[in-house]
Design goal:
- This protein is an alpha/beta fold.
- It has 3 domains: 169 residues, Thiolase/Chalcone synthase (Peroxisomal Thiolase, Chain A, domain 1), CATH 3.40.47; 126 residues, 3-Layer(aba) Sandwich (Peroxisomal Thiolase, Chain A, domain 1); 31 residues, no CATH class.
- 31% of the residues lie in helices and 22% in strands.
- A 5-stranded mixed β-sheet has the order 1-7-6-4-5, with helices on both faces.
- Helix 4 links the parallel strand 4 and strand 5.
- The longest helix has 22 residues.
- Belongs to the thiolase-like superfamily. FabH family.
Length: 348
C-alpha cells in the first residue's frame, strides 16, 4: 500500500467583489447584520456569462498542476466536487477534461456539497494507496451566484455564498510518515430537506399530483414548473439555526476522530483548515479544541461560503502565506448538506 500526499495546491477566485453594503442595494440587509451572524464582509461573484463552475475549476487546476511539477498529460484521473455544475448532466469532470485537452482519463463527479472536497480527497487517497493511479486531480468549484435570489425573502441564504474554485494534485508520498494519514466520512440523511435545493428534481411530479401537466398521459411530467419558480420553491432552502446546531456538534467530533485514529490530540495540530460555512461555527470549534488563532485558518470574511471550493481555497491561501510547511500536521474538516461531514489528517 502506498500513502498519498498533496503534491500541488491552487485556487482561483473571480475578480468581482461584492461587499455586504453592495448586497443592501438589492435586499433589506446591512453590513452589521451579515457580519454579526456569519462573519462575512465580502464575497466574489463569477462573471455571469463568461465564467462557469468548470472554467474556474480549470484555473485552479492549472496552478495545482504546475506546483506539483507535472503537466496535464500526467494526470490519470479527475475527481470534481460541486453542487453547482454547468449542466444537470453530464458532470463537470468531463468538461474540464475536454477543455484542458487531457487524454482519455476517468472522471468522477462528487455531489457532497460542503463536504465534497474532503470526500473527493478520501476517494483519491484510496486510488493512490492501491496503486491504481499516480497523479489524481481533485477539484472543488462553485458558481453559486447564478442560482441565488437577491431579494429580501432569500437573504438568510443569499448573503452567505460566494463563487470560486480550489484544486489539488495527489501523488504517492515519497517519505515515511508523510501525506494523508487518514480520512473520516459520515452522513445522516434524516434531516436532508432542511438544507437543500428541492427543485428541479425527479420528485417534482409530487407538485403536479393535483394538477397534472398532461392529463391524458400516465407517463411524463415537468422537470420544473412555472409555479415552483414563481413561489420560490425552486430556490435553495436552509434552516440556519438547525444547521448551526448540528454543525457545532459534528465538526469537533470528526476532528477528534481523526486525531484519535492517529494517536494525536488537538495540541498537536499545526493548522486546522475548516470548511468556511460560518465564522461563528469556526470560532466555536476553535474554542472547544483550545486552539490559538494562529492554528486555525479562516478566509470566509473575504469569500463567503464557497461550499466544495472552500477547503481547497483556504488550504491554498494558507500554503501561499507560509502557514503550511513540510512536517506540519494539518487537519481539514467540513460539514454540510445531506447532512454529510468529513475530516482528513495530513502530515505535510
Amino acid at each position: 500500500m502506498y500513502s498519498s500526499k498533496i503534491a500541488g495546491i491552487g485556487h482561483y477566485v473571480p475578480k468581482n467583489v461584492y461587499t455586504n453594503n453592495d448586497l443592501s442595494r438589492f435586499m433589506e440587509t446591512s453590513d452589521e447584520w451579515i457580519q454579526e451572524r456569519t462573519g462575512i464582509k465580502e464575497r466574489r461573484f463569477a462573471d455571469r456569462y463568461e465564467e462557469t463552475t468548470t472554467t474556474m475549476g480549470i484555473e485552479a487546476a492549472k496552478v495545482a498542476i504546475e506546483r506539483a511539477g507535472i503537466t496535464k498529460d500526467d494526470i490519470d484521473f479527475i475527481i470534481f466536487a460541486t453542487l453547482s455544475p454547468d449542466y444537470y448532466f453530464p458532470g463537470c469532470g468531463v468538461l474540464l477534461q475536454r477543455e484542458m485537452q487531457m487524454k482519455e482519463v476517468g472522471a468522477l463527479d462528487i455531489r457532497n456539497q460542503c463536504s465534497g472536497f474532503v470526500y473527493a480527497l478520501s476517494v483519491a487517497d484510496q486510488f493512490i494507496k492501491t496503486g491504481m493511479y499516480k497523479n489524481i486531480l481533485v477539484v472543488g468549484s462553485e458558481k453559486h451566484s447564478f442560482a441565488m435570489d437577491f431579494e429580501t425573502r432569500s437573504r438568510n441564504v443569499s448573503v452567505i455564498f460566494g463563487d470560486g474554485a480550489g484544486a489539488a494534485v495527489l501523488q504517492r508520498a515519497t517519505k515515511e510518515g508523510q501525506g494523508i494519514l487518514s480520512t473520516h466520512l459520515h452522513s445522516d440523511g434524516a434531516d436532508a430537506e432542511i438544507l437543500a435545493m428541492h427543485y428541479p428534481g425527479a420528485h417534482a411530479n409530487k407538485w403536479l399530483k393535483d394538477k397534472p401537466a398532461f392529463p391524458d398521459q400516465e407517463l411524463g411530467g415537468l422537470f420544473i414548473t412555472a409555479d415552483q419558480i414563481e413561489s420560490g420553491a425552486a430556490l435553495p432552502y436552509m434552516d440556519g439555526p438547525a444547521v448551526f446546531k448540528k454543525a457545532v456538534v459534528k465538526f469537533p467530533e470528526v476532528i477528534n476522530e481523526a486525531l484519535a485514529a492517529n494517536s494525536y490530540t488537538a495540541k498537536d495540530i499545526d493548522l486546522l483548515v475548516p470548511h468556511q460555512a460560518n465564522l461563528r461555527i469556526s470560532q466555536y470549534v476553535q474554542q472547544l479544541l483550545g486552539l490559538p488563532d494562529d492554528k486555525v485558518f479562516n478566509n470566509i470574511q473575504k469569500y463567503g461560503n464557497t461550499t466544495a471550493a472552500s477547503v481547497p481555497i483556504a488550504l491554498s491561501e494558507a500554503w501561499e502565506a507560509g502557514k503550511v510547511k513540510e512536517g506540519d500536521l494539518i487537519c481539514l474538516a467540513a460539514f454540510g448538506s445531506g447532512f454529510t461531514w468529513a475530516s482528513a489528517l495530513i502530515k505535510w
